[in-house]
User: What shape does this take?
Amino acid sequence: MVISREELLRIIDSTNVKATATRKDIEQLCREAIEYGFGCVCVNPVYVRLAATILRGSNVKVCSTIGFPFGVTLSEIKALEAVKAVENGAEELDMVVNLSALKSGDYEGVKRDIAAVVDVKRLSKGLIVKVIIETACLTKEEKVIACGLVKEAHADYVKTSTGFFGKGAAVEDVRLMRLTVGNNLGVKAAGGIRRYADAAAMIEAGANRIGTSTAVTIIGGAP
Assistant: This one.
């Protein structure tokens, strides 16, 4: 699939969620996002206020991770983290599903966990919530179930990966996720997407958002 440079720019979440990321690293991430016109930057909660300050007046949105990277934080803490992220300037949230509950078959618990963060949308008009299901850790059946729970909890996107479990986004997973959620929910592919060809393949499979820590490299390969 051929996607133009301009189209790709709008759907890239340029990301730095490393535990070792410095203030200087985040400042560079934001400056690059302004320079290239990426749709969003994704950072950990401690850097949301900094990113929002740098990006004020631009068209680049700020996304905060929630319950990152393992997803086993208490739902109340995830909700509080989401509230604080919004107060600090986040316009999007990338939360990690409770993998332990999902693997245990506690599907109602998973849905409540997602809903606790989705409920924060009442505080911020237009807030977008994406749910990372960590496809590398799931069976095909669990991927389908997880997508269904994300949809039932009224989140906006289902996302493949944190990038912390080795295997990241896979074309077959993105295709399955899109098939499962239909056209009314977004699909974000993230983890291991480092070239334009990788991003194009994910979009062809059904992704409408790309998360990457190599956004500048990817856009450099776009037609």
The chain has a mean pLDDT of 96. The longest strand covers residues 61-66.
